[in-house]
Amino acid sequence: MLKRAILIGLFLRIAANAFSQSPYLPLNDIPYHWLDRLDVIYSNPTNLHLSLKGVARKDVAAMALAIDSLYPEVPETTYADLQWLVDQNNDWVNRNTRSVAQMQLVDSSNLFYGYEESAEQKVIIPQESRRTVLKHFYKTPAHLFEVNTGDFTLRINPLLNFRLAGNNNDDQLLFENQRGISIRGAIDSKVYFHTEILESQARYPAYVNEFRSKYSAVPGAGFYKSYVSNIFSIDDGVDFLLANAYVGTNISKHVHLELGHGRHFIGNGIRSLFLSDFSTDYFYLKLNTRIWKFHYQNIFGELLQERRGRGDMLLPKKYFAAHYLSLNIRRNLYVGLFETVVFARENQFELQYLNPVILYRTVEGAIGSPDNVLLGIDLKYNLWRKLSLYSQFILDEFKIGELRARSGWWANKYAFQIGLKVFDLFDISHLDAQFEYNVSRPYTYSHRTGVANYSHYSQSLAHPLGANFREGLFRLRYQPNEKWFFILRAVTMHQGEDQDTLNYGSNILLPNDNRVQDYGNEILQGVRADIFMIGLEVSYQLKHGLYLDVFYQSRNKESALVTRESQNSYIGTGIRWNLGRRWLEF
To answer: Quick one: 130 exposed, middle or buried, by C-beta within 10 A (0-12, 13-18, 19+)?
Structure first.
């Protein structure tokens, strides 16, 4: 029998159809970092394409169980990580397996995999709570309420994020107060659903308020109302509602259809130059096709144009279509191809863009409309079960002749990313580092009309800085055990900002027809701004998904215009329950 050759322990305990889809793991910082670790150190035994986020809960459970099966002697902290992932996604795990030793499975590439387990092996199974609450609540550590029948699963959990901090440059406190609920489930292992509602009040640092004033939107949230708190003596807070939901089904064994309201992230870095979760949620239709070594995703979305006023009003719409093809060339080598188009029509989707395989440039030419098309490629290469190299390149527009001439032609618009992840630094378990560098030329992601730019609700769909920047990021993480988490963050950002009515190419919302010049454009042109941010966060997990946080952040901005300089620093504490961190690094 094959014991370590290739996988199978993964699917032995998955309750659902081997090719069914499931709800997604939220874009939470800690679990996705664990998945990156498992992918590199244990050679991705389930062929999971981690550049496409969120990752299906079924696949998360499958990876954890596969590693548990194939690598019985993992470090204690890694074992705790696997247990956490299995408990969190126990609706896709069958508690009543592991008694069988000889099973095999045919996957979509028609390969047979075998597995044989040892009687002495320590086995991960979903945990049950030692004590329930009122007999019906918290039967398992991860979920407030759950239902498990042969054809129906349901999970209900509370959501909480409360943070309070003292600010260096004013007397009013900074705070976040978010409460909500998360509901997910599946019917007949074929239809899955998820909904999440989060009521939020907050007072943010000055640089976030500047963003809000400039774009009439809270980063990641969009519409907001003013908020005043007598308890915390706050008179300039914001009140907003976050809600995302989706329902999906299996069209066939390998194709899944989903309709929802939410966000996506494509890439392997801290930032994404393709599609990130920086903007607020949007309405979408999504197709996922998974067969052999391919994962092909199509997203058709409805976006909102720039908000130009306050109060109740129907915002004008625009639309986008995107597809991304990920290929697992080898177990440690991935390549991805990306294409997207943003366009505006009079309250209707351009039906020709619904074709899931055609190149959008050909459609654009056929219908005689110069919409905003972007093309991209990304790579990930894992080395020595220790390192992960990754990169992205996005091309908005260019001419070979102008590129060779090095004339600084304005329409040579592109951006690129290169990054490195290092796991178990100095052979210390769970001491991990990440380095990333991002560059974008002026006017990238913008459009001549100022409508078909790559944005939603005045917020970038890709990098938070928009364009015309250079950026370096650093992360250092340490998890000594299952309870403690330490994260050190450092970011250096350099951008050429606009001045008065002069468009130097950093603000992607502006029409690029009013650019300052056709030639002689270079990265960081305009009013140069240099921003340095550093942050430290210490978290302690009180129980599954419940974290006590202590944090510090400092942001210093220097500018060629003294009036734009600022310095913010704060220190505080908070508590999170079933919610990840959201760092406002821009």
So the answer is: exposed
Bridge partners (DSSP) of residue 389 are 381, 420
Cα separation, 181 vs 199, whole angstroms: 9
What are the CA-CA distances from residue 205 to residues 169, 176, 238, 241, 536 (Å)?
9, 11, 12, 19, 16
555, β-bridge pairs: 533, 568
> How far from 131 is each of 25, 59, 128, 191, 385, CA to CA, in Å?
26, 29, 9, 32, 40
- Residues 338, 377 contacting (CB under 8 angstroms): yes
Q: What is the separation of C-alpha 54 from the centre of its chain, rounded to a whole number of angstroms?
A: 7
Q: Residue 353: which pLDDT band, with cuts at 50, 70 and 90? A: low
Of residues 576, 427, 553, the one with CA closest to residue 487? 553
Residue 573 identity:
T
Residue with the bigger pLDDT between 120 and 373: it is 373
- The C-alpha torsion from 459 through 433 and 535 to 78, rounded to 10°, is 100
pLDDT tens per residue across span 481-532: 999 999 999 999 999 999 988 999 999 999 999 999 999 999 999 999 999 9
Positive or negative torsion for Cα 363, 367, 368, 372: negative
Q: What are the structural domains of the chain?
A: 1-117 (no CATH), 157-577 (2.40.160.10)
Of 87, 79, 28, which Cα lies nearest the Cα of 53?
28
Structure-derived torsion over alpha carbons of residues 210, 212, 214, 220, reported in degrees to the nearest 10:
120
Specify whether the CB–CB gap between 86 and 93 falls below 8 A. yes
Number of H helices, E strands in the chain: 7, 26
Alpha-carbon torsion 138, 139, 141, 142, what sign? negative
Report the relative pairing of strands 455-456 and 52-53 from DSSP bridges. unpaired
Q: What mean pLDDT do residues 236-264 have?
A: 95
Position 316 scores a pLDDT of: 85
Q: What region does 470 belong to: left with phi over 0, alpha with psi -120 to 50, or beta?
A: beta
Cα angle 213-217-218, degrees, rounded to a multiple of 5: 100
CA distances from 195 to 55, 159, 315, 520 (A): 16, 12, 24, 49
Residue 356 reports pLDDT greater than 80: no
The model's pTM is 0.90
pLDDT, tens only, 40-56:
999 988 889 999 998 99
Quote the CA–CA distance of 571 and 382 in Å, as a whole number: 37
Nearest to 583 by CA among 493, 491, 467: 491
Q: What are phi and psi of 101, to 5 degrees?
A: -110, -25
Q: Which helix (H) or strand (E) holds 9?
A: helix 9-12
Question: For residues 202 and 177, is the Cβ–Cβ distance under 8 A?
Answer: yes
